[in-house]
Amino acid sequence: MIYVGKSNPKDKVRRCHEIIDRDRLSHIFPLKDYYDYVWFFWVRLGSMWNSKIQHGMTVEDDKIMQEILTMLTYDGSEQGWAVFSRGLHDMTKGKGDILLTVFDNSEKWGQKVDHPHKFVPVLHEEITGVHPEHHCNRLILPGSAGYIPERVVCSECGRTMDKYIMYRCCTD
Questions:
Q1: Separation between Cα atoms, residue 54 and residue 45, nearest integer Å
Q2: What long-range pairs does 62-68 form, CB within 8 A, spacing at least 24?
Q3: Residues 63-88, mean pLDDT to the nearest whole number
Q4: Model-wide pTM > 0.90
Q5: What is the DSSP string of 117-168?
Q6: Contact, 17 vs 28, CB < 8 A?
Q7: Which stretches make up the Sieve element occlusion C-terminal domain (predicted)?
């Protein structure tokens, strides 16, 4: 498990890292290496996005672009997110508010997990079953390729997203 936080880790990420280390919640990278790994994770996603765009791929017809879009949307969110996987093929992901709802209701679905290999598939089923009445996704696209697509669809509901130019100073 690795806490990757945001593409521009700030003091909040350092505090989370310290808590994970202090409370022995997981094995973690030393803080001096951690920022390099987080940077590489987000830069790699951006590079994959730009490469796909340059090859004429779109979110509508490319599963990898859909997944990249989802991860980039999570980065634009203030709610947090998580990805769970087991092995190469079982994977699920979700925004923080949906995950908290699912885990708060775990007494309703927990009995379906009668073996460790069932956890991720059951969790995926529960996450995809939660449809919030309202959601708002923000997407910050990597701009190094100089190309901004005319149309991007929401990774959650499939509707075309409104396009804005945003400048932001965040001291989080």
A1: 14
A2: 66/155
A3: 83
A4: no
A5: GGHHHHHHHHHHH---S----------TT----S--B-TTT-PBPP------
A6: yes
A7: 1-171
